[in-house]
Task: inverse folding
C-alpha cells in the first residue's frame, strides 16, 4: 500500500506554455534563472522576429513554506530592456511576479502562459505531452553562440602601431582596418608637409 501511495504522490510543477512560430510547446521550470529570447544561447529560445535576442528573464522566488514562484523581468541580465516590451494580462510591465494562469505577451506576437499544476509524476508527464513538452535542459545549444555571448573581460594587451607616434595609445584591443591605417599614414605625412 505504501508503494501505491508513493506513486500517486502529487507535487507542484511550474510550466511555461509557449506559442511562437515553432508552434505550441511546454517548458517545465525548476532552475533558478532562465533567459528568454531569440538568440540560441538563451535557456528558452523563442522563434520570432518580434522578440529581442535577449528579451526577458525568469527568476525563481523562494517562499518560506519551501515553495516558489517566478518573477518575469523585461530585458537581459545587464538591465538592457527589450525592443518590443513585455505584457502580462494585457498590462505592459518591466517586472511581474507571476501567478497561475498569467498570460504573457513578448513583443506583439509571442504568447505564453505560466501555469502551476499539482499533479503526480505520471499525470504531469501526460500533461506535458498534451502540450508538446520540450525540456530546456535536454536541448542542445550551439556552443559557438554560447561562447560568443560569454562576457569575458577584454584583453589588457596594448596594440602598438608600426611606426612611432606621440598620439595616445588605447589599451582596449581593436581591429585594424588597412584602408584606415593607410589614410592615417597619408594624412600624417600631409600634415607634416603643411607645417
Result:
Amino acid at each position: 500500500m505504501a508503494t501505491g501511495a508513493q506513486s500517486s504522490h502529487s507535487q507542484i510543477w511550474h510550466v511555461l506554455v509557449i506559442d511562437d512560430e515553432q508552434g505550441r510547446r511546454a517548458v517545465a521550470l525548476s532552475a533558478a534563472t532562465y533567459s528568454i529570447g531569440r538568440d540560441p544561447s538563451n535557456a528558452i529560445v523563442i522563434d520570432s522576429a518580434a522578440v529581442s535576442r535577449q528579451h526577458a528573464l525568469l527568476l525563481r522566488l523562494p517562499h518560506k513554506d519551501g515553495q516558489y514562484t517566478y518573477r518575469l523581468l523585461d530585458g537581459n541580465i545587464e538591465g538592457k530592456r527589450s525592443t518590443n516590451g513585455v505584457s502580462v494580462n494585457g498590462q505592459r510591465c518591466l517586472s511581474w511576479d507571476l501567478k497561475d494562469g498569467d498570460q504573457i505577451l513578448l513583443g506583439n506576437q509571442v504568447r505564453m502562459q505560466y501555469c502551476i499544476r499539482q499533479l503526480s509524476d505520471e499525470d504531469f508527464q501526460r500533461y506535458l505531452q498534451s502540450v508538446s513538452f520540450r525540456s530546456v535542459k535536454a536541448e542542445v545549444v550551439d556552443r559557438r553562440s554560447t561562447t560568443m555571448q560569454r562576457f569575458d573581460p577584454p584583453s589588457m594587451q596594448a596594440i602598438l602601431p608600426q611606426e612611432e607616434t606621440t598620439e595616445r595609445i588605447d589599451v582596449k584591443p581593436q581591429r585594424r582596418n588597412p584602408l584606415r591605417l593607410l589614410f592615417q599614414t597619408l594624412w600624417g605625412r600631409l600634415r607634416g608637409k603643411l607645417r
